[in-house]
Design goal:
- The chain is of the alpha/beta class.
- The chain folds into 2 domains: 262 residues, Alkaline Phosphatase, subunit A (3-Layer(aba) Sandwich); 112 residues, Domain 2, Phosphonoacetate Hydrolase (Gyrase A, domain 2, 2-Layer Sandwich).
- Helices cover 30% and strands 21% of the residues.
- The strands form 6 sheets. A 7-stranded mixed sheet has the order 5-20-11-4-10-8-9, with helices on both faces.
- The longest helix is centred in the middle third of the chain and has 19 residues.
């Protein structure tokens, strides 16, 4: 629940949301999540000369590096950004988890799965003018939970999902809405179609960031305070011949333990399979006999392409995950590799380019950019992408990072 410090529902008040204090914005704050955007994309776009606005922020030192939440997927990180807390607190650990009682994989796109209040919702309920705009419709219900304001998706407004236009529309509409209604808070979240399809420094990627750059500059000219971050990075996951480097975890566990002894869940799985073919660098495995989990984990650790295997207890502690929405094991692939279930479960013909994906530790570092000087000094610890609203509203580094 939200509590208020100072005068209620008015400028000058402070809202306490998920045990963090957020002052009322003194000017419109826009937090932008550039989906799938490690700093490498920005660096190449700046070098190509197509992003003068972003170049000006970097040249002035208005940038820091931060960690995304684990797993480095879209839904957990967008919800971390808008709640200011990790998945252990808000409950969204991916797109799917296994309901142990029914044995069914459950999709977590509905707001009923969210366990923490969002910052935009809390401010809207206190009387602030709030706008949330996302690219894909899969996020709209989660991001709009409890919101007394405008929550839209570019997909809902008819933009093509498999196109840069989906994300460009988000920023364009953000500029239009800032001009027409000057909301107190705005959250804009794009799609990673471009990053799944095109490498950094490709003409297509540079063109895309050039368009985004123009919209960010327009928001700045309209008087918005900007904090720009990303939900995760992106890495090439194919070999020199363009074939995906995949470890099929369910096939391995079937061979080792028997067909019905385990179930692997791939939390990246969503309706947009042409992005990634449901192949990411993070998986979770449920084991019928939980006492076997540690031994199975040791076997998996020895598989080429696997970077790390943790038991549920260790994964929850290290990655701040909700224990009831992950399996007995958490598996992370290395920067070049993705995890699948069985080959027959993945139609790789839907991929539009050699596989680029995310989900693991290699995709964790993301940028934080500001359109005014960042706080003085250094932060108390490693920054997180979900510190974006804190920094934007408090004008200081978080007390504990």
């Amino acid at each position: 629940m939200t509590s208020r410090v100072g005068s209620s529902s008015s400028p000058g008040s402070t809202l306490r949301i998920n045990d963090r204090d957020y002052p009322w914005p003194t000017k419109p704050l826009v937090v932008v999540c550039l989906d799938g955007s490690p700093f490498e994309y920005l660096r190449h776009a700046i070098a190509s000369g197509v992003t003068p606005y972003l170049e000006s922020l970097v040249a002035r030192g208005f940038v820091r590096m931060a960690d995304a939440a684990m797993p480095t997927f879209t839904n957990p990180n967008n919800l971390s950004i808008v709640t200011g807390v990790p998945p252990a607190r808000h409950g969204i650990s991916g797109n799917f988890f296994l309901d142990r009682e029914t044995g069914l994989a459950v999709m977590m796109n509905d707001a009923s799965f969210l366990r923490a209040e969002t910052i935009p919702a809390a401010f809207s309920q206190a009387g602030a003018r709030v706008v949330v705009m996302t690219a894909k419709d899969k996020l709209r219900n989660l991001l709009g939970a409890g919101l007394r304001g405008m929550c839209l998706s570019a997909e809902q407004e008819g933009q093509p999902v498999y196109s840069a236009l989906l994300s460009e529309h988000v920023l364009q509409r953000g500029v239009e809405l800032m001009r027409s209604m000057a909301p107190d808070l705005m959250y804009l979240s794009t799609s990673d179609y471009v990053q799944h399809t095109h490498a950094p420094d490709s003409p297509e990627a540079n063109r895309y960031y050039g368009v985004i750059d123009g919209h960010l500059a327009a928001l700045d000219r309209l008087g918005a305070k900007l904090v720009i971050t990303a939900d995760h990075g992106m890495q090439a996951k194919a070999d020199a011949q363009g074939r995906p480097r995949v470890v099929y975890v369910q096939t391995l566990l079937d061979d080792w333990c028997g067909r019905d002894a385990t179930q692997v869940i791939l939390p990246i799985t969503d309706p947009y399979v042409a992005h990634h073919g449901s192949l990411g660098s993070f998986a979770t495995a449920y084991v019928a006999n939980a006492s076997d989990a540690a031994a199975i984990g040791e076997q998996l650790t020895a598989v080429p392409g696997v970077e790390m295997v943790l038991t549920r207890e260790h994964a929850c502690r290290q990655f701040e995950l909700p224990a009831d929405r992950i399996g007995d094991l958490v598996i992370c692939a290395d920067r070049h590799t993705v995890l699948g279930t069985r080959p027959a479960d993945h139609d790789l013909s839907v991929l539009r380019a050699p596989l680029r994906s995310h989900g693991g530790l290699a995709e964790r570092e993301v940028p934080l950019l500001f359109n005014q000087p960042p706080p003085d000094g250094e932060s108390a610890g490693r920054l997180r992408n979900y510190d974006a609203f804190w920094i934007g509203l408090n004008g200081s580094w978080p007390l504990t990072a």
